[in-house]
Design goal:
Layout: H1 8-17, E1 22-29, E2 33-43, E3 46-56, H2 66-81, E4 85-89, E5 93-100, H3 105-119
Antiparallel strand pairs: 1-2, 2-3, 3-5, 4-5
Helix pairs in contact: 2-3
Amino acid sequence: MKKNLVDIRALIEEAENSEHKEAFKILDRKQDHRIGVGTRLELPDKQSFFLEVLVYLCSDKAQVDLPALEKKLKLLKKLQKRGYSLSCQDGNCITCEIIMPPQSLSAEYETIESTTKKIL
């Protein structure tokens, strides 16, 4: 990730001390999406790392914005093609997650950050 963007060791320590054995850090937050990185402890000495993109389908306005939804659908399709699992969440959003080695998180974050800027 960008230099010192996420301290992997600190993320692991936070997960070790959490009730659910998971830690998460938000890297980018905009009105229509959020990008973050996290880790889950699966065994005492094994963790999995993931990048998560949360895509908000509608704004706080009551009116549906079809052009914005089309852009978000385009982003969701790109994420799915990259191997992200997509799931519906309460609160008007879709969670997109990919599990990867910690050394790959930086390049993936930069790619997804760039992709969201281009599409949204």
